[in-house]
Amino acid sequence: MTQRVAIVGAGLTGSLLACFLARRGLTVTLYERRPDPRTGSAERGRSINLAISERGLDALRRIGLAEEVMADALPMMGRMIHPVEGPLDFQPYSASQDRAINSISRSALNNALLDAAAKAPGVEIVFEHRLVGLDSQAGELVFETPSGRVEAQADVVLGADGAGSAVRGQLVGEGALADDADFLDYGYKELSIPAAGGEFALDPGALHIWPRGTSMMIALPNPDRSFTCTLFWPSGSFDALTTAPQIERYFAEHYPDLLPLAPGLVDDYLHNPVGVLGTVHVQPWQAHGRTALIGDAAHAIVPFYGQGANCAFEDVVELDRCLDDTGGSWARALPLFEARRRDNTDAIAEMALANFVEMRDKVASPVFRLGKQLEHA
Ligand code: FAD
């Protein structure tokens, strides 16, 4: 009999995973708590673009989606450092001209993956289904929907429902696994730099950084020629600025080149939410050989290496490989997946934390710049 797989969460990980599992001839139902994002508008201030690197592109290539996604991508060849005073400083990521990280719209990527999953044989996507109950041993799921509670049954349940995973919460409640989250004492807020006279207001071939010691701002280009900026500031410090004159004065002093480029700065600052940042640790990632976590649900990390989604895409490729290597046995593939991935996800979690210090502080130091020049010499 064909195995029925339930994937909870149709974000980047869940929708990619559905595409991979469909190729194995499995019957997949993808449950998502939100309405279909392809018919609505994006949430305000939630990481509008992502840096996708070779690690993520590899997964997209395997399902024939890399070309479509890359058609709108903006390659960033290095960092552009914006000091408070003085000239901009471009620091290439690599001596090689063909290596870049790519700025990609999160919603366009998610929509392309949902379209691909919807077209894949054996995949059904069910929106407005929020997981609220799970019996991981019996494979029974309970969802809240606009028309009341709905129950479902699956042979395998995969939690791809992000950093605050409800699947993980249910497994912790059953005593099947333990989790903890290290929250950073920093929050993030998004701002926008619109196109100026139809053109990019900054160089679109770079990831822009305003290092300010204990805090920073970054900006990535978008296909509509705008930039999305993200402030990473100590938690609580966002509340110190509450009026338009205060906000303008602060940015004029600390981010002087931003002010003329961001006419909506005050509105963005006052209305966009402050997001939290943290690292999630889970042990183990699977229970009973039939329920498992994947992507941010298993190992959410801070965003300073731009590798969370890339790493989640690598998870999907590795899980598929483990199914190949175990003749499609979930009971053997799920522990194998964890054994093969954990060292890598632990490493990137540490590197992402370390890169925050590099980005907000070290990139502005002359010694750091000299070191990079020698690396590329
Ligand atoms: P999510 O994207 O969180 O998707 C989870 C899905 O599950 C959502 O659709 C949600 O609605 C759904 N869901 C949640 N609960 C339920 C429930 N109870 N029932 C049903 N559905 C549910 N990564 C990069 O690679 N490059 C970057 O440049 C980058 N920049 C980032 C910048 C910021 C500010 C942040 C916060 C993160 C960034 N990341 C980046 C990380 C990246 O966003 C995540 O790693 C990625 O989104 C993880 O995908 P996911 O599908 O596992 O989780």
UniProtKB/TrEMBL annotation:
Its cofactor is FAD. Belongs to the aromatic-ring hydroxylase family. KMO subfamily. This is Kynurenine 3-monooxygenase. Keywords: FAD, Flavoprotein, Membrane, Monooxygenase, NADP, Oxidoreductase, Pyridine nucleotide biosynthesis, Transmembrane, Transmembrane helix. Catalyzes the hydroxylation of L-kynurenine (L-Kyn) to form 3-hydroxy-L-kynurenine (L-3OHKyn). Required for synthesis of quinolinic acid. Its EC number is 1.14.13.9. Signal peptide: none annotated. It comes from the Bacteria. Gene3D superfamilies: FAD/NAD(P)-binding domain. It catalyses: L-kynurenine + NADPH + O2 + H(+) = 3-hydroxy-L-kynurenine + NADP(+) + H2O. Pathway: Cofactor biosynthesis; NAD(+) biosynthesis; quinolinate from L-kynurenine: step 1/3. PROSITE patterns: PROKAR_LIPOPROTEIN. Pfam families: FAD_binding_3 (PF01494). It comes from Kribbella flavida (strain DSM 17836 / JCM 10339 / NBRC 14399). Residues 4-322 form the FAD-binding domain. GO terms for biological process: anthranilate metabolic process; kynurenine metabolic process; L-tryptophan catabolic process; NAD+ biosynthetic process; quinolinate biosynthetic process. InterPro entries: FAD-bd, FAD/NAD-bd_sf, Kynurenine_monooxygenase. One of its GO terms (molecular function) is kynurenine 3-monooxygenase activity. The keyword Phosphoprotein does not apply. It is an enzyme of class 1 (oxidoreductase).
